[in-house]
Structure formats: structure tokens, C-alpha cells
Amino acid sequence: MNSTILVVDDDPLNMEMISIILKQKAYNFLYASNGQEGIDIAKTKLPDAIIMDWEMPGINGLDAVKILKQESSTKDIPVIIATGKMTSPDDLAKALDAGAIDYVRKPIVATELNARLNSALELSKSYNLIKEQNRSVKYSLHYAREIQRAMLPPKAELNDHFSDNFVVDKPKELLSGDLYWVTHNKEDSKVFVFLCDPGPSITGALLSTMTNVLLHRILDEKGFVHPEIVLQELNKLLLAEFSDEDVRDREGIKISACLFDLSTNEMEFAGAKASVLVFQNGNMTELKGDRKFAGGYQKEEERSYEMHKIGLNKGDTVYLFSNGFGNQLGGHEDKKYKSKRVKELIGAVHQKPLSEQKNHIEEEFDNWVDAGNEIQHDDVTVIGIKV
User: Fold this and answer.
1) Per-residue pLDDT tens for 218-252?
2) What is the CA radius of gyration of the chain?
3) Which of 157, 191, 227, 336 allows an S-S link to 153, with CB 3.0 to 4.6 Å?
4) Which residues pair with 187 in a beta bridge?
5) Which positions ≥6 away from 387 have C-beta within 8 Å?
């Protein structure tokens, strides 16, 4: 397909000269006699490149370039400035600062114009290729996010068993590494709540999706066994999934596993590099998981995890959280928030209604990021469950 060139010049002789020089290239030409007309044609026709005269009545070439660079539809169209008088180094620097990618001096030399236009068109092709690739990647990521979201338990799954709850879900990017899963056993009133934290972005999303599948397999085959048994089985399956030892050794999963027995009002917990908080009558108990990943490098022959058991009363609150909030840089000193401060934050709000707790935690995180003029560095998940 032939490239389309927009020539913007108030002198018909210059337009004709440019057309003659370029006629052997079989370009499609568009013409505009002033800056405003050139802007309007560029917006509607989206040429592959623009040759823009600098000195024109009304909107001059430099101002026209600035306007085009502010428009999302035209900002990537390469513009070559043509000038007869503005030829000093300072003038040419102004043209480049305005957004032009190159310039030609008048009277125009054929070899110079052809060389600069060829470069401009190659740049245009690169821009278009990158934009198309970006569109494709974004579509794929959005679709993958929809699939990942479909794997999350519906809100009703939590509500069916815990009428008062909240989930803070702030992924760093479209795909989240953090993944929580809720499932129940109707026969004996048991509910499992898992929070998986393998790290952010696409790698984390793949690992959490794999973990979700393996957890389903474990519960299907073993039933609602104690949470430490689930983690031991998960560790074995994760190690078996990786044929590449280097990948296997570095891809460990942090995970919290809480098994609620609604008939006895007890909770069992096991964690791999994770802990949960339980608030009872204003007092906080931290159930600490083992300092071992599920999966990842393993020097011991068998990896085991410790199970913690705690009795619960009506009104007690249990919190699961990933390490994204604690690892977030921010604040006026641009430091990590740290897990200790996350626990203090939860302790400070735990007596408020859970909907208010959720809002307060989200606001605190956003304020922390903004104060440090930072970007979000990791996925952030906090789950609050009132018994």
C-alpha cells in the first residue's frame, strides 16, 4: 500500500516542486495551503508523514506541529519542517523541540528530501507496528484478566458463610499475582479461605493460577483435610510441576490457609511465609506461618508446616493479607510501609464497621503512595472476616 504524504505550504510552487521530486515514489499526496487546513486534514486523513512549511500566514508551521503533537490521533505522525529563512542552529533546535523529527532547507534538494522522508516513513511504520502490538497485548491482558477474575469466588461465596466481610483487591497491573479462593464442604460446615501471594505481574498471575488448580485437585482428592496437610501436598505438587530445576528453585509461593469449622466455632491455620491476625475483645493474636515457601528451593527431604488452632466467638475478626502493602514505598521519606505498620493499621480500625475498615485501608494505601510520589510496586490484598 502506497504511503500518504501531506504537504502543507502556502506557496503552490513549493507544493509542485515537492510533488515533482517525489513523483517516482508513487506516493498518495494531500495538500493544504495553511497551518489550520493542514491540522484539519491530518486529523481526518491521518497521513503517514507530513512536510510542513514553517512560515505561513495564520498558524505557522511550528505552531501547527505543536497542536498535532497534542492530539492523540496525530501525535505519532512524523513531521518534516521545510524552511528557507529559519536555518540557524537555534531555529532548527526550536523545530525539533516543537515535535518535528527532521527538517529540509529551501531551496529543497531532491536527495536530501528523499533521504529524510524515507527515514520519516520508516519511523511511521515503526510507530504503527508498536501501536498495533500494544493494542493486541492490551486486548490479551484484558481478556486474561477476565479469565482470572472468573476464577475468583463470587462475592456471594464469602457472604453465604460470613455475612460481614470485605476484600481490598488492588492489583499492581491488569493481571494480579494475589489470588484468594473460598470453598466449603456442605457435609460438615467447613469453609476454607486461601490467599496466595506469589508476586506481581504476569509471572505471579501464572503461578497463582497454577496454585488455584492444584488446590482444587488436593481438596478433590484428599477432602477437607487440615490446612498444614494441604500446604504439604501443595508443596509436593508445585515441585513436581517444574521440570526446570532453576525455575523450580526460585518460584516459591506465599500462602495463607484458614479452615473455619462453623459447627464448633474453631479455625485452623497454616501459612507459608504468611500470617493471619485474629481480634478478640480488642486483643490481637497473630498466628504466624512457617518461614518456608510452598514450592521453591528445598534443602530438606520433606517439607512440613505447623498448624495453629484457635477458638472463635461471635464478633471476632480474622484478617488475611498479602505482603504488597508492607513492601510499598511511599510516605514523605519514601520508605517501605512495612508489615508491622500494616498490623498496626488493622488494629487501629478493627472495631469500625468492616465497610469503613475497607475504605480506610484503601485510603491509607493511596495516600502513602501519593505522599512518596511513587507508583504501586506490588499487588495488595487484604481480607477481613467477622465471625
Assistant:
1) 999 998 999 999 999 999 998 888 767 766 666 68
2) 31
3) 157
4) none
5) 162, 260, 265, 312, 313, 314, 315, 316, 317, 318
Task: Decide: pTM greater than 0.85.
Answer: no
Grid cell, residue 217, equals 485437585
**Residue 292's CB: how many other CB atoms inside 10 A?**
21
Taking the C-alpha atoms of residue 15 and residue 30, their distance in angstroms, rounded to an integer, is: 10
Pick the CATH number of 153-386 from 3.60.15.10, 3.40.640.10, 3.60.40.10, 3.40.50.300: 3.60.40.10
Query: How does pLDDT run across 248-298, given as a tens digit for each residue?
Result: 666 688 999 999 999 899 999 999 999 999 999 999 999 999 999 998 887
Render the burial of 330-348: b for 16+ CB within 10 Å, e for the rest.
bbeeeeebeeeebbebbee
Neighbours of 313 (CB within 10 A): 9
Q: Do domains 4-140 and 153-386 have the same CATH topology?
A: no
HEC states along the chain?
Answer: CCCEEEEECCCHHHHHHHHHHHHHHCCEEEEECCHHHHHHHHHHHCCCEEEEECCCCCCCHHHHHHHHHHCCCCCCCCEEEEECCCCCHHHHHHHHHHCCCEEEECCCCHHHHHHHHHHHHHHHHHHHHHHHHHHHHHHHHHHHHHHHHHHCCCHHHHHHHCCEEEEEEECCCCCCCCEEEEEEECCCCEEEEEEEECCCHHHHHHHHHHHHHHHHHHHHHHCCCCHHHHHHHHHHHHHHHCCCHHHHHHCCEEEEEEEEECCCCEEEEEEECCEEEEEECCEEEEEECECCCECCCCCCCCCCCCCEEEECCCCCEEEEECCCCCCCEECCCCEECCHHHHHHHHHHHCCCCHHHHHHHHHHHHHHHHHHCCCCCCCCEEEEEEEC
Q: Cα separations (Å) of 27 from 119, 313, 359? A: 15, 79, 58
Q: So where are the chain's domains?
A: 4-140, 153-386
Q: What is the largest CA-CA distance in the chain?
A: 93
CATH of the domain spanning 4-140? 3.40.50.2300
266 pairs with which residues across the strands? 261, 311
CA 368 vs. chain centroid, Å, equals 19
Q: How far apart are CA 183 and CA 161, in angstroms?
A: 10
